[in-house]
Amino acid sequence: xxxxxxxxxxxxxxxxxxxxxxxxxxxxxxxxxxxxxxxxxxxxxxxxxxxxxxxxxxxxxxxxxxxxxxxxxxxxxxxxxxxxxxxxxxxxxxxxxxxxxxxxxxxxxxxxxxxxxxxxx
Length: 121
Hints:
The chain has one domain. It is α/β, with parallel strands linked by helices. The radius of gyration is 14 Å and the shape is globular. Helices cover 17% and strands 40% of the residues. A hairpin with a 4-residue loop joins strand 6 and strand 7 (114-120). The protein has helices at 4-15, 71-78; strands at residues 22-30, 38-52, 57-62, 89-93, 101-102, 105-109, 114-120. A seven-stranded mixed sheet has the order 5-4-3-2-1-7-6, covered by helices on one side. The chain is built from two helices and seven strands, in the order αβββαββββ.
């Protein structure tokens, strides 16, 4: 489980709060030949987010048709949250037809200026 404070700290440590990076979702799956390895299975832009206070979750939404969400736009909202909200779980919603998925990790691609949230297939 990843919480908001984990996300903030990783953005600070890995990309030094570079506001121009775009948020992206990356799908991973187990390698059929070696289940200890994970392989890339796809990528999609994150276009928006919302906080669900009832379930105590920050939901980032995959939205291909929207302008990708920048790290700067996301972080400016996260930094003003109270301490209780910093412990909300971060999840990724890939469609309205599926429940939001738990993150398995964070990462970045410096060449493409993308900050990635990883989920399992």
